[in-house]
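Appendix B, Record 12. Input sequence as logged:
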Amino acid sequence: MKKPLRTPCMAVIVLLAVIISGYAFQGNAADTTSQEAPSWYYHSIVDVKFVKDHTGMPMPDHVMLIDARPYKPKYVKGHIPGAVNIPDNEFDKHIDLLPADKSALLIYYCEGIECKLSHKSAQKAEKLGYTNVKVFAKGYPEWKKAFGASTTLTVKAGEVEGSMDIAMFEDLLANSPEAMMIIDVRDKDEFDKGAFTGSVHIPVDDLENKIKDLPTDKLIVYVCSTGARSGEGYYMTKDVRPSLKDVYYLEAGCSFNENGSYKIKKTEG
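Logged structural output:
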C-alpha cells in the first residue's frame, strides 16, 4: 500500500491551520493589547519587560515613568519604583513636571487593562507635542505580580543638594503626612510658638545623638526658620548615618501663626 503524498497544497493547509489557531489563541488571551483592544486604547502599548528594561533607580536620562492614578488611595499605597505621580484629572496642573525635551520617552501606566487613565494622559501628552509616548496597559497590577509591591515615594528634589521641592513637601503635608517624619531643628522657644502638625522637635544642638534612632520607613525632612539649621541637620545625618537614604531638608524659611497656619518662603541666593 502506497503512503499518501504530502503535496505542497497540503503543507500550505497545515501552515494556515497553525496561523489561524495562533490568532484564535491570541484573541482569547487576557491581554487586551491584541487586535481586539478597545477603541479608547492608546496606539503604542508596551509590556512589563519594556518597562523593566527602560526604567530603574535612578531613572535613565530622557525617560519619565508616569503613574496616572490618583495619589490617594493608589500611588501612595504602591507604585513602580521611579514613577512620578501625575493623576490624569490633574494633568493640566502639572504640565511643568513633564520634560522639556519633547522626544523624551514617556511611559504612562495606571490600574490595569480596564483602566483608561494612562491612555487618556498619553493622548494629552501627544497633543502637547511629545513624540515618544508609550502606555503600559497592564499597569501596576502586572508590575506587582512580576516584581512585587513598592511604596517608596519618588521625591522631587529642590534646587540645591539634599533639599526637597517645596511644593512636594506641602502636598505630602496635606495629603500623606504619614509618609514622612518632619524634624523641626529650631530652638524650643521658636517651636513653642508654632510648628507643622505632627512634627518632631529635636534642636540641632541635640540632634547628633538621636540620629541613630531615626526610622527607615519614612522620609526624614528637616525644617527650620531659614534653611540653615535644617541643612545642617541634613549633612549631619549624612555624616553620622550614611546608610539612611531618604533624608531631605527644606531650603526655605518656615514661619507660623497662632491660628496654626504657616508660610514657607524659598531661601534666596
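The helical segments are 8-28, 48-54, 117-127, 139-147, 166-175, 188-192, 228-240.
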